[in-house]
Amino acid sequence: MSRFDYDLFVIGAGSGGVRAARISSGHGARVAICEESRVGGTCVIRGCVPKKLLVYSSQFASDFSDSEGYGWSVSGAEFSWPKLIRAKDDEIDRLNRIYHSLLDNAGVTTVMGRGRVVDAHTVEVDSRRYTAGKILVAVGGRPNLPDAPGVDLAITSDEAFDLDKLPERILIAGGGYVAVEFAGILAGLGSEVTLVYRGDKVLRGFDDDLRGVVEAGMNGRGIRIVYNQVIDEIRADGDRREVKMSGGSTEHFDQVMFAIGRDPYTADLGLDAAGVETGPRGRIKVDEYSRSSCPSIYAVGDVTDRVALTPVALMEGHAFADTCFGNMERTVDHDSVPCAVFSQPPAASVGLTEHAARARHDRVRIFRSTFTPMKYTLSGRKEKALMKLVVEADSDRVVGVHLAGPDAPEILQGFAVAVRAGLTKADFDRTIGIHPTSAEELVTLRQPVD
Questions:
Q1: C-alpha dihedral (209, 214, 218, 221), degrees to nearest 10
Q2: Hey, is 231 helix, strand or coil?
């Protein structure tokens, strides 16, 4: 009989933790998992899923407007924020129940409460201790807040999903995908949105052409963007917020939201006691098998120093389970991971940006098309779409694909397979396009740009 209560104890029942627990149990391991909030994690409870539902809701306003160019007359349409939030909550509750069922059906013991590492083989949850041969940390991250006066008067994306009412005027701080997505959501639902960002263009790290198209689309949808500034101070002014910017101006808003990044939720997790090494912002350092500096403690997902995306956490959790309990040694390749921004217009990317490709390769060819999507030809909307290929010239291999415009994330998923497979520009050229679609641009681009 094992000297441990479990073969595996998982701290955190988000996407990566649940996947690791289920697969490990399927391989015959005795598994327990703890969660202090709701099973499902950031993505299901307060991230990707509710955000996408709000994105869908926010797009109807522009759809109603565009429909007039196609002969429709839409009048009397009304929006109810409380009705949307109730519907969103019902769906999240349903998914939460499904995640509980998935764990129960897999034979995983669920312990509610915040787990804390006591030593290399012990986890404490609400004063009760559990021992395990291996411990997996999958606690994800939490929104980061600046050290600024009055920051307690602001909200983050976590609270934005549960506001009592839609703010008439909101200031969003940040320029990453969360800030950009919420700017589009709230503007689409009727809020007057200002985005303030310390940089000079939104979506740092994405391809510059893609960033430009998204920025132009945001401006066209009435979102005001203030660059090269941050929030210096927030003060209460009745029910409103008085905000002082670093540029010297002072403005009033109904809400202020920070979306300036997320930090691993490792504070007071007891990692030091077990000799687990962490890096900047508390990110757990792991090897290619998700093993930390303590041989019995592993970590997957946003809590590590790798790629912070839900599908990556799922794959890392699965690879961990197969390696440790399934006699299948597996690692995860973090190169060419596709990603999407559900902005308005939406954007998606896989592989190297043009800037990164030029830094890595001697010769690079760029194929790019910027055009008005067919959907907007009758509606009159002045919004562009982008289709861009980055090609390593010597091998002719397509090393990057960058899209912005209607359905960009859906289009990119298939082309991400092509990039992962190492297909060449000639392979793209030999592929017959589907007409008329925006996606056909990617297989009909013939002339490289300067």
A1: 110
A2: strand
pLDDT tens, 423-439? 999 999 999 999 999 99
Find residue 226's DSSP bridge partners.
196
Please pick, among 27, 121, 252, 435, the residue that the annotation labels catalytic: 435
What pLDDT digit, counting tens, does each position of 161-209 carry? Answer: 999 999 999 999 999 999 999 999 999 999 999 999 999 999 999 999 9
The percent of residues in the chain predicted with pLDDT above 70, rounded, is 100
If DSSP codes are grouped into helix, strand and coil, which group holds residue 432?
Answer: coil
Q: How far apart are CA 209 and CA 246, in angstroms?
A: 28
Task: Cite the beta strand spans of 96-230 per DSSP E.
Answer: 109-112, 115-119, 122-125, 128-137, 141-143, 155-156, 169-173, 192-197, 224-227
Q: Work out the mean pLDDT of the chain and round it to a whole number.
A: 97
Phi/psi at 256 (5° precision): -125, 130
- Measured from the Cβ of residue 360, the count of other Cβ atoms closer than 10 Å reads 11
Q: Is 100 annotated in the active site?
A: no
Q: State both tokens at 121.
A: 């083989």
Amino acid found at 49: V
- The answer as to CATH 3.40.605.10 being correct for domain 345-444 is no
DSSP notation for 316-373: HHHHHHHHHHSS-------TT--EEE--SS-EEEEE--HHHHHHH-S-EEEEEEEE--
Structure token pair of residue 383: 């919004």
> What is this structure's pTM?
0.96
**What fold does the segment set 6-142+263-325 form as a domain?**
FAD/NAD(P)-binding domain (3.50.50)
Q: Which residue carries 């869908």 as its tokens?
A: 56
Instruction: Give the CATH H-level superfamily of domain 151-260.
Output: FAD/NAD(P)-binding domain (3.50.50.60)
